[in-house]
Amino acid sequence: MHDKTFDVIVVGGGHAGCEAAAAAARMGAMTALVTHTFATVGEMSCNPAIGGLGKGHLVREIDALDGLMGRVTDVAGIQFRLLNRSKGPAVHGPRAQADRKLYRQAIQAEISAIDNLSVVEGGVEDLIVVDGRVAGVLIGDGRRLGARTVVLTTGTFLNGLIHLGEQQIPAGRSGEAPALKLSERLYALGLQLGRLKTGTPPRLKASSVDWEGLELQPGDDPPVPFSFLTERITTPQIACAITRTSPETHAIIRANLARSAIYSGQIESTGPRYCPSIEDKVVRFADRSAHQVFLAPEGLDDETIYPNGISTSLPADVQEAFVRTISGLERAVIKRPGYAIEYDYVDPRELSLALEVKELPGLYLAGQINGTTGYEEAGAQGIAAGINAALAAGGSDKDFILSRADSYLGVMIDDLVTRGVSEPYRMFTSRAEYRLRLRADNADQRLTPQGIALGCVGKPRRQAFEVKAVKLSEATAMLRSLTLTPTEAGRRGIDVKKDGRRRSAFDLLALPNVELSRLAAIWPEIGQIAPAIAAQIAVDARYASYVRRQELDVEALRKDEALRIPPELDFGSLPGLSSEVRQKLTRHRPTTLAQAARIDGVTPAALLLLLAQLKAQSARKAALIRGAEDFARLFSVSRETLVRLSTYETLLKRWQKTINLVGPGTLDHIWSRHFADSAQILEIAQAGDKRWLDLGSGAGFPGLVIAILLAERQGAHMTLLESDTRKAAFLGEVGRRTGVPVDIYPERIEKAATQYKVGPVDVITARGLAPMPRLLELAAPYFSESTVGLFLKGREAQAELGEARQKWNFLADLRPSQTDNDSQIIVIRALRAKAEG
Questions:
Q1: How far apart are CA 470 and CA 449, in angstroms?
Q2: Residue 133 pairs with which residues in a beta bridge?
Q3: What share of the chain is helix, strand, coil (3-state, %, to 5)?
Q4: Residues whose CB is less than 8 angstroms from the CB of residue 395 and which lie 6 or more positions away in sequence, other chains included
């Protein structure tokens, strides 16, 4: 029996745990956040700072999904700086130094105010597992909490061990007990665990620092907020200071290396490469006479200084000696010595892209337990795990998985579960292949619509985003409508190529030294654009041409991601692969061809062999359909539907004798290819009860087939457009003989929208005989914001999509045909024409 049952239980009240619990609760799941004590929820265990290069992008993405970290930092931040200002916006890194107490208080206030979220104080010692699936947790005092899903965010508590010189202290962080039994449970599950380490510097007393001789570093004025909801920062701002170690500092450290836990052999695990201890710096960079130390106050009314740059595991007496050789710290008082901490982590290759443990369904992991370092990496994993745990708890068979082309969050999770870690993982902008698209400034445009669709975005953010989106759209449309010839631009002092082509204000904004203020002198209405919207448009315009080029690469990635690898595929039996590649594929179990390509050691030749195998499997599926009975079995259609399709087949063969409805070979593959492709389109659409439109229906593929498959569902309706009157007559005959209600309009597609008042509709289908630019032009009158287009195309799809983007904006997803290796189903959403010029 359980003391209480929840939909989702989140274990751990750190940054990952808070984001996971809040996200699950926002999605409507009854959620419990289990932590030792509520007083430490949101504790900043290490540097009280948020963001930086790469990390700041993650915070903006958390915020775009309505997470906590961005807006809490805006409340608690006492110094904001936008790093990399001299470089392009794609690599700008928002960063803030936070007041540790204000941050903790703000997080706790947020957690307390969230509906469906309860806080349970106690230490989790074990997982409850029933029939091979997680079913809850066991608290140290004997309480049993049931759950449909569990998220573990244990940070450094999993078998945590603090090292301070020769001392070893079992702890998750200073003064708090480690999670020992939970670590034992994970080992017992057979998961691959390892050890990592991190460290922290000594904390100093502010009044003992000689500030007069130090280089002060103020923040930005005005400060740039993290959250898209924050209009301005109201918390008082402070300056930090910079100092440096000295040759004397390094001499003391070298003389005591044998007493450092890192160099004495006491610690064998790996620490973060990009945040090394001061001992590591002195040894690895022996030619350097000084290393920078950043002195940051831990709060507005806190006497504690965090000296970033001198993390150490040396004994307390050595720390006191070397600290006092640093300029400005000659009389410094150490409030708490620094230390190193070792902890267990789970090899993230044990996880799916949803952050679910493959060997124990219902269990999700987020944060340092997955081998990462940093608040931002933890929080981003937390929000993803919380969303997926809530989806699974609600019975959904869909996971929330972001592509590498969508977000830094997608890059990080894919890196973790594909490659694993050999050292604590830290996010950098250089890890992203598509960073021109993945900017910190457009995180809401990329992710908030997905969050709204998932239900994890609350009403205030949704309304704010919708208002912003409308303003952006209107302002962009206005800029695209204002144009100049090259001669007119030259007269205004704007130098463009003399090619006779008119350029819009949006195009001109992409040129060097052309600002909105300059364009407003030409077109005064531009000056009425709100400053925040104007700033966003300026960045969008500057990157527009580069992003268009990158879209081609993204579409190639989408194609590979769409090519799923069946979970039952036996890599060990694939011919032509080396034993090393077989072992790596079997170990990692990639779920897509794109993921397999990112596994270290999987060569291009191996990928070609794997691709051939997957295509051969698709061909075998087509071969399995030899007729009506095979089709009925594979696609689970009723006997009545099968009779209708057989009637359709008979009529097609009869009419084919008098008019040319289909190609000569079509009749030989009507069930295995043409009916099967139509059924696949219906599966992709997942919109059986909606309004359907088939363009240029011809012999009825896929529209008439889909109409027959939908005939037994209430609320579905199909309209067929076919300008050839003889083919339209055939379609009508099939409709009458099968009893399937369809509207058939014998008119050119361009005229039907007005003549028959067709559209907009929910789903548009077509066999893509026309090139994609023309096909989208024909489909456009029938599109609304929610319409999905599903077009069957051949090998030329990729190139044609690139051409179509010259005139149209849209979201595209390519799905391989299950029955034809040379065909793809192109999924088009959010279709809209680009402004002229």
A1: 13
A2: 130
A3: 45, 20, 35
A4: none
